[in-house]
Amino acid sequence: MYDEILTNLSPEALALAVEENEIASRCYRARIAAWELVEQPGLTIYRSGLAHDPFWNGVLRTDFMLEEADARIAATLADFQTRGLPFTWWLGPSRYPADLKDRLSAAGLTPGSDDPGMAADLARLNDDLPAPSGLAIERIGDDTGARRWLATFRAGNELDTDDVSTVPLSHFAPGGYHDDEPLQFYLATLDGVPVATAQILYAAGAAGVYCVATVPFARRRGIGAAVTLAGLRAARERGYRAAVLGSTAMGFPVYARLGFRQYCTLSLCEWSPSSV
């Protein structure tokens, strides 16, 4: 998944890197978990076969001609419906036609929010931000650490952590823990207690930021920014020039303080059997 480091930091190149890194993240998980990854003309699909969450199946690339768009949308939807699989159709400026979200909505998918796709020049990071004393950040180096990371990430999203030990490693962990692994996990602890997570994915020539989460009691103390910066500094030391991410409205001001700017808009549509 490593490729030539992006040196063109034009707005157009950064916008494309945001999307391509996001696509690479889904393809990475599909390959690690041995899910089905289908490449068709103008369409890339991944299927886990898991039916409990739309994110586990989806459409990554879309490049339809106008005259075929509705028919191909209908055929793709019918395929997931026949299999009984909920799925996500990922959207962004490189997906065509331009009115794809409206067409998907008309076909019966539920549209999601429009979120900022952001990028930063790693040479211009604002990485001199305060962090609380007692904060330590480590890069995860084994399966035990990965499960600790998952429990913290779920706690940061206020989700149940009781079943972490039963989640297959292939569903969330990196393929390995060596220095050259494209996906790196970071865990922040405060006085020895796990409090925040982040991931860095090296793909599409950029360092992609994912899964930043802070447990409720530790929020608004600069910890999420600190664990993100740990990964970004490592990317800079590897020679990477650009970092990319898809933000939420809540995360936008945090990333803006680090030096990220919006270069595109990302969105999605979802379908599940329960929505019929």
What's the short story on this structure?
With 276 residues, the protein is of the alpha+beta class. Strands 1, 2, 3, 4, 5, 6, 7, 8, 9, 10, 11 and 12 form a 12-stranded mixed β-sheet that branches.
Tell me the CATH superfamily of the largest domain. Gcn5-related N-acetyltransferase (GNAT)
The CATH topology name of the largest domain reads Aminopeptidase
User: How would you sum up the global shape?
Assistant: globular
Low-confidence stretches: none
| SSE arrangement, N to C | HEEEHEHEEEHEEEHEHE
Mean pLDDT: 95
Structural classification: alpha+beta
| Structural domains: how many | 2
- Percent of sequence in beta strands: 25-35%
Short descriptors:
276 residues, alpha+beta, Aminopeptidase, 2 domains, twelve-stranded mixed sheet, globular
Describe the protein:
Helices cover 30% and strands 29% of the residues. A hairpin with a 2-residue loop joins β8 (183-190) and β9. It folds into two domains: 12-115 and 267-275, no CATH class; 121-265, 3-Layer(aba) Sandwich (Aminopeptidase), CATH 3.40.630.30. 40% of the residues are buried. It starts with 10 loop residues before the first helix and ends in a 5-residue tail after the last strand. It has 276 residues and is α+β, with helices and mostly antiparallel strands.
Layout of strands and helices, then pairs:
Blueprint: H1 11-32, E1 36-40, E2 43-47, E3 57-62, H2 66-83, E4 87-91, H3 100-107, E5 110-111, E6 115-121, E7 135-139, H4 143-156, E8 183-190, E9 193-203, E10 206-214, H5 223-237, E11 242-246, H6 252-258, E12 261-271
Parallel strand pairs: 3-4, 10-11
Antiparallel strand pairs: 1-2, 2-3, 4-12, 5-12, 6-11, 6-12, 7-8, 8-9, 9-10
Helix pairs in contact: 2-3
